[in-house]
Amino acid sequence: MAIKITEDCINCGACEPECPNNAIYEGGVEWSISDGTTVKGEFKLMDGSVISVDAKNEPIASDTYYITPEKCTECQGFHDEPQCSAVCPVDCCVPNEMIREAAEQLLDKKSRLHI
Length: 115
Ligand code: SF4
Ligand code: SF4
Description:
alpha+beta
């Protein structure tokens, strides 16, 4: 499952540069698929819809850092453990129980983000 950031986040920013998929954003900042990835054109989201990789999408949180599940791969293919969880000083990067993905799905997402 994807990782999420809880409201315990203290906005230290330590996790953001550690994400291999650029899935972590500061609160209130719009996210896009193409930020920090090599993908071009269009991208299929988890619900099957397709968006432009350069589309600017609504922030998921405004007061804390947040993770977009569409880009989080639990660090599969890059690291043995989620890097955001590893560096967070207050342990607020936790599994998102609402989004369960198999390893194959996560690796597929990773391969589509890094073409
Ligand atoms: S688990 Fe990995 S891919 Fe997901 S947000 Fe954290 S650092 Fe990024
Ligand atoms: S490392 Fe933890 S406390 Fe710091 S910004 Fe990231 S989620 Fe928030």
